[in-house]
Amino acid sequence: MVLDKLGESLKNTLQKIARSIFVDEKLIDELVKDIQRALLSADVNVKLVLELSKNIKKRALEEKPPKVIPLREHVIKVVYEELVKFLGEEKAEIKIEKKKPFKIMMVGLFGSGKTTTIGKLAKYYQKRGYKVAALGLDVHRPAAPEQLSQICKKINVPCFIDKKEKNALKIYEKYESEYKKYDLLIIDTAGRDALNKDLIKEISDLNKKIKPDENLLILSADIGQAAQTQAEKFHESCGITGIIITKLDGTAKGGGSLSAAAVTNAKVKFIGIGETVDDIETFNPKGFVGRLLGMGDLEALLEKSKGAISEEQAKDMGKKLLKGEFNLLDLYEQMESMSKMGPLSKIFDMIPGMGSVKLPKEMLNVQEDKLKKWKFILQSMTKQELEDPEIIDGKRVERIAKGSGTTVHEVRELLKQYNQSKKLMKLMKGKDPEKMMKRFGKLKGFKI
Q1: In a 10 Å sphere around its CB, with 0-12 CB exposed, 13-18 middle and 19+ buried, how is residue 59 labelled?
Q2: Taking Cα atoms as reference points, which of 30, 40, 59, 44 lies closest to residue 260?
């Protein structure tokens, strides 16, 4: 869970309100103090914390909720809305214009995760149909060009580098005729251990020459209060248009980098939530606060599911639902899709209501281990067994267990899971999945 400690503190604070019989000024004062403590311990700027808590207190005491909404629910709603407002209110997406190429320049200090983030961002836009290329202009860190090259190679994205040239502007000019072949060019720039005049001058010169459409500042979640100074200096040198926060999956407090957006008036556009190339999300303040407070983030969950299963696969599954068909190959495809969506703990945080349920990490890890074993079992089956599981007898179970390095009990457990899933599919036979999803969407207040 992103910002685990902050989320836990805020959830505990709101539970006080939810359990209270009477909501008076004394309780609101306690609530505000708890929120202040939680945000300050997460490295959020003191001035911003005081401003936020002042707004929460004013609204909680002065606003009169509709008669149908209890006062305690209104106070929780106020906290949610003010936190969303504090983090930027609306999702700030990058709109890739139809020009060749649209240029994104990445800036930040050494160790902030610029090069890794370029790979994540390239993959993100590649999956959305854009022709993407990367350009390495970090001429000061010897390993930077090779690191960028290796990352791009893994995701099949062209990468322009020159390991010998020590002038970033000359590298940019060298490949200038190539850039028009791509929809999007993501540019890596040099970082330093600390801000200095040379770095600021280089970024400023590159900005004047390249004229990027977006200047994204990469901030590490563990940077703390120093984020404000960095944001200001980089903003002066090239005019920051957005922020990407990395390492939000760890134990970092993260509040300093989140509040840096207020200094530059540049919104947080993406967050890095893991180590793999797919662990990047568009920053949606409403969903982010929803996860912090245990309310879930359906939009992010739907976005992840889109990336995990193609439209054709979804349509094919829909046809099988209508016919009541389901075999082990379908179960295997579902497991593949689940693994693409990431760890179960992250998925649970996005499901409304589940974020506030304290499921032991050991339990979630057991479920993930079980999914891995089931994949090995399915991979050890023949095509005939996958398509017609009814033929799997005792001897076949023993062979499959040996081939997958699992036990007979684990193979039988998978077959039991399959039979339960098949029963569910039979219940849904003849029902239109699209209509069911639309109905679900209306019930939950989402347009699907």
Answers
A1: middle
A2: 44
Q: How many C-beta atoms surround the C-beta of residue 89 within 10 A?
A: 12
DSSP-H helix ranges across 239-310 = 255-264, 285-292, 298-308
Query: Does the model's pTM come out above 0.85?
Result: no
HSE value, Cβ hemisphere, 13 Å, CA-based, for 72 = 12
Angstrom distance (rounded) from CA 44 to CA 87? 11
Mean pLDDT taken over the chain: 77
Q: Which of 385-421 are b and which e, b meaning 16 or more Cβ less than 10 Å from the residue's Cβ? A: bbeebeebeeeebebbbeebebeeebbebbbeebeee
Pairing type for strands 268-272 and 280-282 reads antiparallel
**H helices within 130-254, ranges in order?**
144-154, 168-174, 197-210, 226-238
List every span in the chain annotated with CATH 1.10.260.30: 301-444
Residue 96 burial (C-beta neighbours within 10 Å; 0-12, 13-18, 19+): middle
CA-CA distance, 288 to 298, in Å (whole number)?
A: 11
Q: Which is the CATH superfamily of the domain at 102-294? A: P-loop containing nucleotide triphosphate hydrolases (3.40.50.300)
Residues 113, 247: contact at Cβ < 8 Å?
yes
Q: Looking at the chain, which residues constitute the CATH 3.40.50.300 domain(s)?
A: 102-294
Phi and psi at 187, nearest 5°, equal -110, 125
pLDDT in tens, 23-34: 788 888 888 888
Q: For tokens 């019989």, what's the residue?
A: 21
Distance between CA atoms of 390 and 419, rounded to whole angstroms? 10
Q: How far apart are CA 208 and CA 416, in angstroms?
A: 64
String of DSSP letters for 311-362:
HHHHHHHHHHHHHT---HHHHHHHHHHHHHT--HHHHHHHSTTTTTS---HH
What is the rounded CA–CA span in Å between residue 26 and residue 29?
A: 5
In angstroms, how far is the first alpha carbon of the chain from the final one?
26
CB-count exposure of residue 357 (10 Å: 0-12, 13-18, 19+): exposed
CA atoms within 13 A on the CB side of 48: 23
Q: 3-state DSSP helix/strand/coil percent for the chain, to nearest 5?
A: 60, 10, 35
The CATH number assigned to the domain with range 301-444 reads: 1.10.260.30
Let me know if domain 4-86 sits in CATH 2.60.40.3250: no
pLDDT in tens, 105-160: 999 887 788 899 999 999 999 988 999 999 999 988 888 999 999 999 999 999 99
